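Final report, Chapter 2: Outcomes

The project's central promise was a pipeline that accepts a single protein chain and returns its three-dimensional structure in a standardized token representation, suitable for archiving and comparison. That pipeline is now operational. To close this chapter, we reproduce one record exactly as it appears in the project archive, with the input sequence first and the structure output second.
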Amino acid sequence: MELTPNVGYSFAMVFGEEDPGREPVFGVQYGLLGDFYLNDRWSIRSGVSHFTLGSSTPYTTLKLNYLNIPANANWHFGSEKHWNLNFGVTPQFLLKATDDDRDVMAFYKNFQLAFSYGMGYKIEVSEGFGILIDLQGLVGITNNLEDEIEIKRRNLGASLNIGGVIAL
């Protein structure tokens, strides 16, 4: 098993119906991930992370703060198995929703499901510690707006991260 506290620079967009002129928002992603090894090539990656999604227009900035709990299969490859490729689903729980500091939680569902994927490289520093550099992405599978709102929207996000891999 490995634990990886990480932090990263994130990019996010909201996409869907009636969304012309939307631009990405940028922020910080942070969390704690764990790799539970099934064998020397495969692990299950899960944990918790804070991720800000949303988008901006010239007039307003929407920020949706989520607690993410990924459930990804993680394939470790290469001669030393320092590379990894992961994919799975990520339940997301909405913590806060603002549009230019106005609370808009009432318009958004508290839960969203996303397809998650990523690729990374672990630099081995010592036998029990490494540095992980990875790119993670997610695409919303479910609509993030409340059902009473007839517009369909989903989240899209990515982050470039660095983390300290601790072997247990």
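Archive annotation: The mean pLDDT is 95.
This record, like all others produced under the grant, will remain available to the consortium after the project formally closes.
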